[in-house]
Amino acid sequence: MASTSVSRVVPASPQQVWNLIGGFDALPDWLPYIPESTALEGGRVRRLTNPDGDVIIERLVGFDEAERHYSYAILEAPFPVDGYVSTLRVHAVPGRDDLAEVQWSGRFHPRGATEQEVVELFTGIYADGLDALHETLAA
Q1: Side-by-side strand order, sheet with 69-76
Q2: Span 112-134, mean pLDDT?
Q3: Mean pLDDT of the chain
């Protein structure tokens, strides 16, 4: 199983960050790559659409409001992976209440691509996403 993780310090308190990103259906609020999200099954599944019209369907598999993290599995997507599970987590920065560290990680089995190609794909998605989150919070 392959994995990757990207972290970024952002200019807002952990609670402010969680208020923005903690809703499972909130990706369009901060991630330009996902302009549309539709909640299904009472909010436990999200149907995402990217700018190219590709559909990504994900299921919430873990959620912890107090610890500020959630995990999800991809059910359907145009990505060359199986068994994809990812976690989005918000950490406090010691001694700073005006900053937070956001970590986006995932594990998966490559399918039709090398492990290096798939790790680079998701490392790029996570890094670009956290850069977009930083821009949103800094605006």
Answers
A1: 2-10, 96-110, 81-93, 69-76, 55-64, 45-49, 36-40
A2: 97
A3: 96
